[in-house]
Amino acid sequence: MRTTENDRQKHVVVLGSGPTGLTAAMLLAREGHRVTVLDKDSGGATADAEQAWDQWKRPGVNQFRHPHIMLPAAFALLTRELPEAVTQLRALGARTHNMLDGAYDLAPIGGRKPGDERFDTLAARRPVIEQGLTNAALLAGVTVRRDTPVTGFLTDATPATGIAHITGVATAHGELVHADLVVDALGRNSSASKMLVDIGAPAPVLDRHETGFLAYSRYFRSADGSYPDQAAWPLEHHNSISLTTVPGDAGTWALALFVSAKDRALRALSDPEVWQRVAALYPDMAHWASHGEPITGVLAMSGMESRHRGFVVDGTPVATGLLSIGDAWATTNPTFGMGITMGMAHAVLLRDVLAEIGFDDRDKLALRFDEVTEATLHPAQQASAAWDLHRLAQIDLDIASIPYEVGVAYETDDADWNLRQALEVAKLRDPDVLRAFGDVGSLLTSPEEALARPGVIDRIMELGGDAVGRPQSGPTRVELLAAIVAN
Ligand SMILES: Cc1cc2nc3c(=O)[nH]c(=O)nc-3n(C[C@H](O)[C@H](O)[C@H](O)COP(=O)(O)OP(=O)(O)OC[C@H]3O[C@@H](n4cnc5c(N)ncnc54)[C@H](O)[C@@H]3O)c2cc1C
Asked: Of all protein residues, whose CA lies closest to atom 38 belonging to ligand 1?
């Protein structure tokens, strides 16, 4: 069911102009609502990708200049729902990139096939992605107000249900902005919890790990606009370290190294010389750090754990009139590049639930949105969180294995993790397994659906079962530490 006449020209205030907030704003504007986006940061408002990259200051998003990939599911979503955003992104230089391009030529894979265009996405640096989305939002009639920090929620004085109903927000400039619905897209450090407590509402239930990962990334650019050859798969996990290749626009790309936040020896990766020596150790990806010239130092990022906020506690929403989406609801390990895509998918869910329920039944809207969110997006977030715990435990063992030359195998009876280990190996040895892995990694398909394809699980165990409970491939920790201290 689409939005009814009664719901038309409602005012929706979206807090946060990151990819999630902008996507939600555009989708809701297309439904006929009046949409205002408020963000504390100042704007890019430029038609020039290089200006967005060089000059746009975004203290509200710590990872703004870190490498980002939009997964194919995000590209499919934008193409289907917001084609004008694709046009704006392309106008700024975003280019088509196929996630599996590095694998098609491998002998067991046997070339590209019809249907593989579903693995296409748009590659661009994050400031360029945000600028393209901003330009599209402005064209869609969304009001985007920058330099407007939100400091508190407005609420019904006497809510009939006893549940606080949010009716707008207060800004740092002392302005009160009234809304029929407030959308919290304030990102991973969203202040919505604090603002709820300030008005006497319960805080959402926060679920987070105490440990996480650190990223050390570096951007490069070629003089002739060329790009390094794509690796067979853009993400590799080795002893103590994971590497991911991230294509950009305008002859730029990045290589990101992810380590455990507990691994003190690897903090030396913030030194560009150390970083270059370590990147050179991994033959499938080393050329991503040697083709072209670096255009940044090493970009270090901490505080990257999977976390989740529950907005319905014991069957009751913490508030109504407020829906949280994207990172403000939950975050995933950035190694898998899912955040933007999940945020955009969440924006579509919000649009659809609002169209189904309307604005007036406040409780039902909050409960239904929570139900759909938890059923649709939470499984991927939980899988990411579960992977984190295993990976961190595996790296703990890597660290403890010193001074042994060979890594110690991490063993667990968790069937999901073990299947994942087999899959990491099998994906480049079978065309159907590759596409099943590609569909899940691109967020096009759920793992359940991909694994239910005929013969896929058998092929995974046949081709990759040996990897389960074995030390990881590639340089050992001893070799890694030697590269770190080498002169
Ligand atoms: C190192 C790193 C690498 C990553 N790589 C990838 C990747 O490759 N692919 C991917 O999809 N995801 C990646 N992610 C995750 C991705 O960055 C997030 O999922 C994404 O930014 C979430 O978008 P969002 O719009 O929900 O929130 P954000 O992008 O965080 O936007 C929140 C907005 O709210 C604004 N704001 C905050 N507080 C206030 C306030 N009080 N008042 C007004 N405005 C406010 C901020 O200024 C900001 O604009 C990565 C994350 C990290 C840390």
From this structure: 186
Is any ligand 1 atom within 6 A of the Cβ of residue 169?
no
The torsion angles phi and psi of 322, rounded to 5 degrees, stand at: -140, 125
* 448 φ/ψ sector (left φ>0, alpha ψ -120 to 50, else beta): alpha
Any atom of ligand 1 within 6 Å of the Cβ of 123: no
Domain assignment present for residue 404? The answer is no
Total domain count for the chain? 3
One domain for residues 263 and 316: no
Task: Tell me, yes or no, whether 145 and 9 share the same domain.
Answer: yes
What's the CA angle centered on 359, arms 85 and 342, to 5 degrees? 40
From the CA of 151, give the closest atom in ligand 1.
Answer: 41
Which of 38, 61, 133 most suits a substitution to test ligand 1, by most atoms within 8 Å of the C-beta?
61
**Same domain? 102 vs 230:** no
Q: Which residues of 302-319 are buried (b: 16+ CB within 10 A; e: fewer)?
A: eebbbbbbbbbeeeebbb
> Would the CB of 124 count as within 6 Å of ligand 1?
no
Ligand 1 within 6 A of CB of 63: yes
Distance of alpha carbon 219 from alpha carbon 320, whole angstroms:
43
Q: Transcribe 404-461 into DSSP letters.
A: -SSPPPP----HHHHHHHHHHHHTTT-HHHHHHHHHHHTTSS-HHHHHTSTTHHHHHH
Token look-up 């006929």 returns 32
pLDDT in tens, the chain (487 residues): 444 545 458 999 999 999 999 999 999 999 999 999 999 999 876 778 999 999 999 999 999 999 999 999 999 999 999 999 999 999 999 999 999 999 999 999 999 999 999 999 999 999 999 999 999 999 999 999 999 999 999 998 666 678 999 999 999 999 999 999 999 999 999 999 999 999 999 999 999 876 689 999 999 999 999 999 999 999 999 999 999 999 999 999 999 999 999 999 999 999 999 999 999 999 999 999 999 999 999 999 987 778 999 999 999 999 999 999 999 999 999 999 999 999 999 999 999 999 999 999 999 999 999 999 999 999 999 999 999 999 999 999 999 887 666 667 899 999 999 999 999 999 999 999 999 999 999 999 999 999 999 999 999 999 999 888 877 888 999 999 999 998 6
Residue finishing a domain among 280, 304, 328: 304
Q: Which of 38, 42, 66, 177 to mutate to test the pocket of ligand 1 (most atoms within 8 A of CB)?
A: 66
The length of the chain is 487
Containing domain of residue 280, as a range? 213-304
Which of 188, 322, 348 to probe ligand 1 with, by most ligand atoms within 8 A of CB? 188
Residue 204 lies in a domain: no
CA 343 to ligand 1: nearest atom:
26
- Considering the domain architecture, whether residues 254 and 325 belong to the same structural domain is answered as no
